[in-house]
Amino acid sequence: QVQLVESGGGSVQAGASLRLSCVASGGTFNTYAVAWFRQAPGKEREFLSRINWNNGNTYYGDSVKGRFTISRDTAKNTVYLEMNSLKPEDTAVYYCAITRTLLLSTAPDFYPTWGRGTQVTVSS
User: Fold this and answer.
1) How far is residue 17's CA from residue 43's CA, in Å, rounded to a whole number?
2) How many H helices and E strands in the chain?
3) Strand 3-7 vs strand 18-25: parallel, antiparallel, or unpaired?
4) How many CB atoms lie within 10 A of CB 97?
5) Coil vs helix vs strand at 29
6) Which residues are bridge partners to 34 per DSSP?
7) What's the sign of the alpha-carbon dihedral 14, 23, 102, 30?
8) Helices (H), the chain
């Protein structure tokens, strides 16, 4: 079974950039769509972006469109989330998740496999 490991989080100042990574172990992302979500304390899990591994098609949530970029490296079996112009409200635990449901969905329930998350803290 595919397992996911996120990395790249940290504590930064507002305006900085970070690149998160999601690596698959025990398998590959082949035939999956890979998504990034985040969850801030006391808030629901929020969809950020998604990429279809096989064709590279991407989709973004409105809150991060234009600031965040999702990409994949097929040789490294890794999906990235490049985050620019970070704001204090971007502070959250960031998760990657996968689904074989190729119809676009932003609901967490459609993603059966999750990583453990990586913390991003943005100070003003």
Assistant:
1) 23
2) 0, 11
3) antiparallel
4) 23
5) coil
6) 51, 98
7) positive
8) none
- Asked whether residue 5 carries a pLDDT value surpassing 90, the answer given is yes
Which residues lie closer than 8 Å to 122 by C-beta, 6 or more apart?
11, 12, 13, 14, 16, 86, 87, 88, 89, 90, 91
Q: Tokens 């590279």 identify what position?
A: 56
């329930």: which residue's tokens? 109
In tens, the pLDDT along 60-104 reads 999 999 999 999 999 999 999 999 999 999 999 999 999 998 788
Q: Which amino acid is at 101?
A: T
Distant-in-sequence contacts of 107-112, Cβ < 8 A, 24+ apart:
107/47, 108/37, 108/45, 108/47, 111/35, 111/37
By C-alpha distance, which of 89, 118, 123 is closest to 12?
Answer: 123
What residues have CB less than 8 Å from 70, skipping those under 6 apart? 36, 49, 50, 51, 58, 60, 79, 80, 81, 82
